[in-house]
Write a structure and sequence with these properties.
This is SCO6880 family protein. By secondary structure, this protein is an alpha+beta fold. The protein has 14 helices and 16 strands.
Length: 500
């Protein structure tokens, strides 16, 4: 009888594109060098070369000198935007207790202040403005959907659980990976999915639940064989229970209301019609998740989503009994202060990292195991997947292929040495083109990590720990300077709103 293979499946990420507008230089760097050349030329013609030395030197230095990991000229836009927001007082938020919010709106700061929510019945149909009780028209806790009027999206969130992936054999891991890929492909094929967000939250737990269960239900066997096992189990809990963590996995599915305009019109128009379309989609998604061996614990109600949001801004909520912050109309931060490299909110301080580069060589599917199971750090990993329309993906990959060929020819003409990274990126583009020609969907991935602690010193130390774990996993991370508030809303909340 032939034995089933147990080889662990391998995967490979495409390299992040680094080519520029001209000879590897980005647009801002080309503009700075071009401006310096124009100033220098005019100075030579007019005979005032001495006056032009200062601006030319500044522009050239801004092109080549790096600050916080990138050329100075590429940071000018972020710094200018940050300075303008700080001058206008947009980096500070305080809840206005005396001014109630409009019915159905969420109590979030910044660009998320426009978000609205609506509750449905337990089947997902029959939407209407939420009453704040967490119950829909079905008489029990129903599904809550979040409407973004600016991006024209409607989002529902599911809580899922699953068996430990690392404990499965190679065949089972391959089956899981293929099943999850089919879930993404099915959503992309619909043509109306805006974003899929997978959010894994890790909350340090003193282990009282595990130890308490053992004290109550554990069998203290005094026999020779059983006694040894009991002692070993007790020693294991004594060693690792204080550093254990609680894991929670949420998957948010966003409906693009612009792309689903025809379906929404048939369902009754407006947000109510969009809710019916999304309810149909999530019923199909739930079946697909089950086929992928992901157990759907349920779709979040208003009270459950409110507790997730409140817990993100106020970590102490996780220690309180269930039911705290049951209304989305008040489940937001009380105070937020945004700084250049961190965010201070209620009882916590957070630092948001961007996964700027994924593993460059072949790796196993659970390559992030060390990052996810790093002990003693409260963090949230959010992975955003945005489907790209087939026509747009083909047009984009052909344009990139043409640009790479032209850039290579230009470098050879000027005698510039070709880098191996350029060749690798070109191979990735060709691979994407072959996959598109074979009928596969194109997805854009973005990874964000939120690290939260009680103080700034603890948050920075935890961020250093997470960055080391990410490097051990083959990933590179960067702090999102000047965009911490927007990044926190995207990464720490299951709203399927990737940072733009």
């Amino acid at each position: 009888m032939a034995q089933m293979t147990t080889e662990v499946p391998m995967t490979r990420f495409g390299r992040r594109q680094t080519r520029g507008v001209l000879l590897g230089f980005s647009g801002p760097r080309v503009a700075a060098l071009g401006t310096a050349a124009v100033i220098l030329g005019l100075a030579l013609v007019s005979g005032v070369l001495a006056l032009a030395l200062v601006p030319v030197t500044v522009l050239v230095a801004a092109t080549f000198v790096r600050w916080q990991g990138r050329p100075v000229v590429e940071s000018v836009g972020v710094v200018t935007h940050w300075g303008a927001r700080r001058a206008l007082g947009q980096t500070t938020f305080r809840v206005r207790v005396e001014e109630p919010r409009p019915a159905g709106s969420m109590a979030l700061p910044g660009d998320a202040a426009a978000l609205r929510f609506l509750a449905t019945n337990s089947s997902g149909y029959g939407s209407g403005p939420a009453s704040g009780s967490g119950s829909g028209s079905g008489g029990g806790p129903g599904i809550v959907m979040v409407h973004d009027p600016h991006r024209q999206t409607l989002t529902a969130v599911a809580e899922v659980s699953y068996r430990a992936f690392v404990l499965l054999d190679g065949y089972a891991q391959q089956r899981r990976v293929s099943s999850w890929a089919r879930v993404q492909a099915a959503q992309a094929s619909l043509g109306r999915t805006s974003t899929i967000q997978v959010m894994e939250s890790v909350i340090p737990d003193p282990g009282r639940g595990v130890v308490g269960w053992w004290e109550t239900h554990g069998i203290k066997d005094t026999s020779w064989a059983g006694g040894w096992a009991s002692v070993q189990y007790a020693d294991l809990m004594e060693l690792y229970a204080p550093t254990s963590s609680t894991h929670r996995t949420l998957i948010a599915f966003g409906l693009d209301m612009r792309k689903a305009r025809a379906q929404i019109r048939r369902a009754g128009r407006g947000v109510a019609g969009a809710a019916k379309v999304l309810a149909t989609d999530i019923a199909q998604v739930e079946q697909a998740l089950r086929r992928a061996e992901l157990h759907v614990e349920g779709w979040l109600s208003e009270g459950e989503l409110a507790r997730v949001i409140r817990g993100a801004y106020d970590p102490v909520v996780d220690l309180e009994p269930a039911g705290a912050g049951a209304s989305l109309s008040v489940a937001g931060p009380v105070a937020v202060d945004e700084h250049w490299d961190h965010l201070v909110h209620d009882s916590g301080v957070s630092v948001v990292l961007w996964i700027s580069d994924w593993p460059r060589s072949e790796t196993i599917p659970n390559f992030m195991h060390q990052l996810i199971f790093e002990r003693g750090v409260r963090r949230t990993l959010s992975l955003f997947m945005r489907p790209v329309a087939q026509a747009n993906a083909v047009r984009e990959v052909r344009r990139e292929k043409t640009d790479y060929i032209a850039d290579r020819a230009q470098k050879q003409k000027m005698g510039q040495v070709l880098a191996e990274s350029d060749s690798d990126e070109y191979v990735d583009v060709v691979t994407r083109e072959r996959a598109l020609n074979a009928g596969h969907a194109d997805m854009r991935y973005t990874g964000l990590i939120t690290i939260t602690a009680a103080s700034l010193e603890e948050a920075r130390a935890a961020a250093d720990t997470v960055r080391r774990s990410a490097n051990a996993c083959g990933m590179e991370t960067e702090v999102l300077y000047g965009r911490q508030a927007q990044a926190f809303t995207a990464a720490a909340l299951p709203l399927a709103r990737p940072i733009t």
